[in-house]
Amino acid sequence: MMSKIKIRAVIMMMLLTGLTAFISPIRSIQQRQMMITTKMYVVSLKPAATPLMDSGKAFARSGELLIEVTSKLDLYGGALSAAGALIRNSGDCIAQAAASCRFKTALELVCDELREAANCLDEATSKLDLAAKEATNDQNAVLGKLLEDSIPVMGDMASALEAAGSAILQRKTEKEVGENLLQCSEYIDNFSARVKSYAPELKESSDAGQRMAFAAACMRSAASKLTEDPPKSKKAKGKSWIKG
Fold first, then answer.
1. Tens-digit pLDDT profile for residues 87-129
2. Rounded-to-integer distance, Cα 68 and Cα 63, Å
3. Using an 8 Å Cβ cutoff, are 90 and 58 in contact?
4. Alpha carbons 198 and 157: distance in angstroms, whole number
5. CB neighbours of 66 closer than 8 A, spacing ≥ 6?
């Protein structure tokens, strides 16, 4: 009886050993393929790192200036201040995403930071809606209408950043990531003009719009780094390859 149990145990061990030996090479190949794919993909995002970093910093600064505008207008602590804080946070996330673009193994961080930036802007959209209602209730119909008109643009900015992050998550080409960033830059540029109109008599409002416009220009530059076709290498003609 004991001998039969031992024989069965030996057979089971042999089967398990064979199965493990079969699965291990497959896992190793998959891991190597994933590492190679990640390495190549991250390197392709590296050219966009510097302009995207400048864009994030400028965008964050525009949010801080918008908060200063609310202080001048005696609206500090309201929904518009909260929207400015969320824009600042979104800019910080964009800058962090740019910093992660420099590293070969930080693809997931780039994706996460861009999507977090989108979440901040999505929440800022709700705050703008509330700010418009607050301005209307305070008998400031002009500001209320300006804020209300800004809501769709803010939502478009959030959607474009979310699409850029999702493109990375889905392992799409760097060109598709760049196209979404380019679209976002256009929305930011559009929003910058609206920010200037919130309080045209205040320098802080003008500065906020200028910083936002600069952020749009930098993001456009980052997008072009990803969407432009790589230069074609020139082939040597005739005997021009001979040195000496």
1. 999 999 999 999 998 887 788 899 999 999 999 999 999 999 9
2. 9
3. no
4. 19
5. 80, 83, 84, 87, 195, 198, 204, 205, 208
